[in-house]
Amino acid sequence: MTIQHHRAGLLVAFAFAFAFGCGSSTPREEAPLSAPDAAKVASTPSDGGLDQASASLASEPEPPHRGPVDVTFAVVSDTHLGHRDGEAKNRALVASLATLEGRTYPKPGLGRVEHLRGLLVAGDLTDWGNPEEWDAFRSIYGIADGGAGSPFPVFEIVGNHDHVRGPWLEQAVARRHDGKAIYTWSFGPIHLVGLGEAASGAALDALALDLAKLPPSRPIVLLVHRPLAGPWSEDIPTAADKTRLAAMLHGRDVVAIFHGHHHAVGHYTWNGIPVFKPGAVKDGDARLAVVHVDDTNLTVATFDWRARRWVAATVLPRHGKLTPPGRGEGQ
Questions:
Q1: 203-236 burial string, b = 16+ CB within 10 Å, else e?
Q2: Is the dihedral of CA 133, 137, 140, 143 positive or negative?
Q3: Backbone phi, then psi, for 208, in 5-degree steps?
Q4: CATH number of the domain within which 268 lies
Q5: β-sheet with 254-259: strand ranges across
């Protein structure tokens, strides 16, 4: 073996470990925080500091939210372009999006799917972070010139697989969103934050800056790749990261958190916040989530994009405020 081949082998091995490293499936318990302790922990920056893109999230404070909430959007995860029949699967998913509006929800009394504001993609856009895989994602989802793609705006974040070849793909995603790796947008009165691969480090620093300008009553949705509890949540984010995030969100109107990585459909409660796994394109049963938020309820309906039919729906009352920070509850 030549020195060059040896070095290449080490690089591949390191990339493989980075992409697939995960801990056990049991979430760590985190001691409850008092309100003063919550404020102290939330304001403590990470060791990594802030990059320019993250710091640019800070701006003038926003006025309190007034008026009704009535917002619908879709969420999917782990598209993994480059994996075997990934292109065919993603094309089938995108083709199904045009059939969602006007469908009657699967539970009585929920009405029909109204206008979808956008499609959220919770990371692992590619299988190995290769340029051709990113090009395929851009083309299929319509974010490249000439791509037909999604009939709704696409809001994507990166996952661990997207970092296999280094930070270039995260930088490409940032260029699509005003140069911000951690970026925000609004669906009417709802404020959404794309945190990237994990709620840790600079992502939490950026979130702290962003929340500083929001009134506590502003409804918030977080999109992140790695889970906060349950399978594959043990090591990243760390227990300290989770404690800081819980403190940061204490007393705020957090509608829900959506994440990928587990390649599954389900939901759990973490520190009083509903957390949902919408389903993965790479594995599983061809699922995505259709989310409707109003002043009374949060509805998350699971849609089979291959068979083009509903599977189930979860309806939760909107609490409007968080319970005091404590340990994350598992699935």
A1: bbbbbbbbbeebeeebbbbbbbbbbbbbbbbbeb
A2: negative
A3: -60, -45
A4: 3.60.21.10
A5: 183-187, 190-196, 220-224, 254-259, 273-278, 265-270
Domain-embedded: residue 326: no
Amino acid occupying residue 113:
V
Total residues found in the chain within this entry: 331
pLDDT block averages, 10 residues each, the chain of length 331: 40 40 35 44 46 42 72 96 94 97 96 97 94 96 79 95 95 95 96 97 97 96 95 88 97 96 92 95 90 97 97 89 35 29
CA 109 from centroid of its chain's CA atoms: 28
CA distance 87 to 89: 5
* Inside any domain, residue 257: yes
Across 274-304, b (16+ Cβ under 10 Å) vs e yields bbbbbbbbbeeebbbbbbbbeeeebbbbbbe
Contact 93, 288 (CB under 8 A): yes
Residue 198 near residue 236, CB atoms below 8 Å: yes
Cα(103)–Cα(305) distance, integer angstroms: 13
Instruction: Give residue 287's domain range.
Output: 31-51+69-317
Residue carrying structure tokens 């490249």:
144
CA distance 211 to 221: 12
pLDDT at 232: 74
330 is a domain residue: no
Residue 240 near residue 198 (C-beta atoms within 8 A)? no
The verdict on residue 328 lying in a domain is no
CA distance 31 to 193: 26
Number of structural domains, the chain?
A: 1
pTM for this structure? 0.80
